[in-house]
Write a structure and sequence with these properties.
It holds the Pfam family zf-RVT. With 269 residues, the chain is an all-alpha fold. It has helices at residues 2-10, 27-34, 36-42, 96-102, 105-113, 137-150, 160-164, 170-181, 187-192, 211-217, 219-227, 231-234, 244-254, 257-268, and strands at 43-46, 124-127. Helix 8 packs across helix 13.
Length: 269
């Protein structure tokens, strides 16, 4: 019912992937509209009659994300065709001669390798990340994470495996990951997000409260390192980088997983 209401209001004559944002959209629709890019990575048209699938504008080929579309450029007449135009008129099978006449060798072979299932009567969009071809939040999240991690915009180089191999509880390792990603709400980070606050450390009131100060430079933090028997790690010349992320990565590369685990537990305490 909700899906029908959203379609009726925002894209009554088109698909979700072609819908405009529209005037005065709701927060829910705005969120779905921006998430279409992720959805499109996991969706593919399953061929029924082929009448509703545009050869050059819809993802319908089998393959990885970038290979679901017929590549451009192609002959001008192809851009107006539906998949139905590539099938025989009287039965559901590829018109091999027509396909090979319209497309280059490699593209033609990819089309001819795309299976046609007689039991599928209507064209429909399926979700390839699940065996039952139905979307789930879990598989959608996994696809989004693969997309984000693989994107140059979000990718951060570093010894991330060293963090996850640390001999410490998962929640502690997760905090270390957040520290390296700059996700902790230090006063410096809050100011970056336009939250007005006093920048000085509330414990010592001597320096700006950022990741380096909280975990490595504050007098209380340094005392904690000593009390934990990790002062040699803290003062090691190899771990004096200017930011917390590089220090953690250096420790993960040079210390054992047991030592990194002890450091992780210390930073969480």
């Amino acid at each position: 019912m909700v899906a029908k209401l959203i379609k009726a209001r925002y894209f009554p004559r088109s698909s979700l992937f072609e819908a405009p944002l529209g005037y005065n959209p709701s927060f829910a629709w705005r969120s779905m509209w921006h998430a279409r890019q992720i959805l499109s990575l996991g969706c593919r048209w399953q061929i029924g009659s082929g009448e509703n699938i545009r050869v050059m504008h819809d993802p319908w080929l089998r393959g990885t994300v970038n290979k679901k579309w017929v590549p451009s450029p192609q002959p001008a007449e192809v851009y107006q065709l539906s998949v139905r135009n590539l099938l025989h008129e009287n039965y559901k099978a590829w018109n091999i001669a027509k396909v090979r006449n319209l497309f280059s060798g490699d593209v033609a072979e990819r089309i001819l390798e795309t299976p046609l299932v007689n039991s599928v009567r209507e064209d429909k969009v399926v979700w390839e990340e699940e065996r039952n071809v139905c979307y789930s939040v879990k598989s959608g999240y996994k696809l989004a994470m693969r997309y984000i991690i693989g994107s140059d915009k979000y990718h951060v180089a570093g010894n991330w495996n060293g963090i996850w191999k640390a001999q410490a509880p998962h929640m502690a390792r997760h905090l270390l990951w957040r520290l390296c990603r700059g996700c902790l709400p230090t006063r410096y980070r809050l100011l970056e997000r336009r939250v007005e606050c006093n920048l000085n450390c509330p414990v010592c009131d001597e320096e700006i409260e950022d990741e380096i100060h909280i975990f490595f430079r504050c007098a209380v933090a340094r005392d904690s390192w000593c009390a934990a028997g990790l002062s040699t790690v803290l003062h090691n010349d190899a771990y004096q980088q200017s930011n917390a992320m590089d220090r953690i990565f250096a420790m993960c590369s040079n210390e054992s997983s047991a030592i990194v685990g002890r450091v992780t537990m210390l930073l969480c305490s």
